[in-house]
Amino acid sequence: MAVDYAVIVVYLAGMLAMGWWGMRRAKSKSEFLVAGRRLGPWMYSGTMAAIVLGGASTIGGVGLGYQYGLSGAWMVFTIGLGLLALSVFFSARIARLKVYTVSEMLDLRYGGRAGIISGVVMWAYTLMLAVTSTIAYATIFDVLFDVNRTVAIILGGTIVVAYSTLGGMWSITITDMVQFVVKTIGVLLLLLPIAVIKAGGFGEMKAQLPTEYFDPLGIGGETIFTYVLIYTFGMLIGQDIWQRVFTARSDSTARWGGTVAGTYCLVYAVAGAVIGTAAKVMYPKLPSADAAFATIVKDELPVGVRGLVLAAALAAVMSTSSGALIACATVANNDIWSRLRGAVAGGGGEERDEVKGNRAFILLMGVAVIVIAIALNDVVEALTVAYNLLVGGLLVPILGGLLWRRGTAAGALAAVVVGGVAVIGLMAGYGILANEPVYYGLLASLAVYVAVSLATRPTDAAVLAAWRERLAGRGTEDPATPDPVTV
Q1: Taking the first listed entry, what is the main subcellular location of this protein, grouped into a coarse class (predicted)?
Q2: What is the pLDDT of residues 118-140, one digit of tens each?
Q3: Which residues contact 239 (CB under 8 A, 6 or more apart)?
Q4: Which residue from 96, 116, 307, 391 lies 20 to 30 Å from 419 (Cα-Cα)?
């Protein structure tokens, strides 16, 4: 394992070096939080794919393939569909707004009265996303170094918090590009063909496994529908995803770069399911499906290659963890803390102070994430609660604001409150992992949004006029920054 250890250590040291490089570049709020809104199509595509394809997509995607066969691709596939929908239909408008958070968008659209409640919901979602990503370090470091769960979480979490705190979005962007390349080589170009060959090829896989393992809908229609509702729609409104859209240098970069990233996700989904199916042939009686990835890597890959593939898994977890962490800190500082203390965001002469403040919040949220990750046991339930609140509480007012002119601030606030309360209440009744809470919570949010919006006065014409100006990209330039990053 010495060679494998060396690969991992070099990789982790490189992540910290990228953080140091990013610290020297992030000199303004725009540079620190959204990389100066200057990413070109290649860098934008790579970082967007990296943020959405985390530990759940890699380790969990292989596990679903082990359990259900090719239809196990659906979870990651719906993530790719959501990213494609966001990129094609909404990303250009989102990028032109030149904001930093989803709640700022709601304030612009509804007249400054919808932000803080939505900020609390979004903060809870990004916090739990960061926590669940951080917990995944335990699986990888256990395979690598045979360390206990707490040490693994502290080790992985500390590295992510360090480079994220140092350089903000610039550090995360550069590390995500490295992670994207490592994932592509490790999972798609190495693990996928090796797993299929070791399993005897597709012919042997079909001969050894039941026919339902090769049924595209074998996982079940209701499960697929729930994945679409949670993950596809979740991609449309999550702060972690929007904050990457804000980094695009132009409308076309956001649209086409995101489309490339979404297509990559679809390929990654199928690859994970195929690897899991191959693992089922080789190891038909594993104690849990989630052990499939680590088992096939540990037992079937040669020295050096094994280290690179484990680095790919580590890259997947780190990219999602760092993206969720900066999103959580941005929401906590800009949407909650600044509003509570009555500060006005965006002061022109305080950019350096704002960098320090956001850096402090990343450090604070990072420590909180590590502590919660150590204390928390049930990752699936925590992530389900986060996504249910996000979709049930925020999907309707966000998409309604983008698509329906008649939507009002009162309707948006009612939708957030009723949708969120309905989801929580229904989870208490049906169970956290049940499908009904998000179904009924979303319907309640939609009904209340429409009814209250129609029953209240339309949004002020001046607010809508300012909103249209922002959507058109007029009068929203950030302070002067260096030339765009064109890669």
Answers
A1: membrane
A2: 888 899 889 988 888 888 777 67
A3: 101, 102, 122, 125, 126, 327, 328, 330, 331
A4: 96
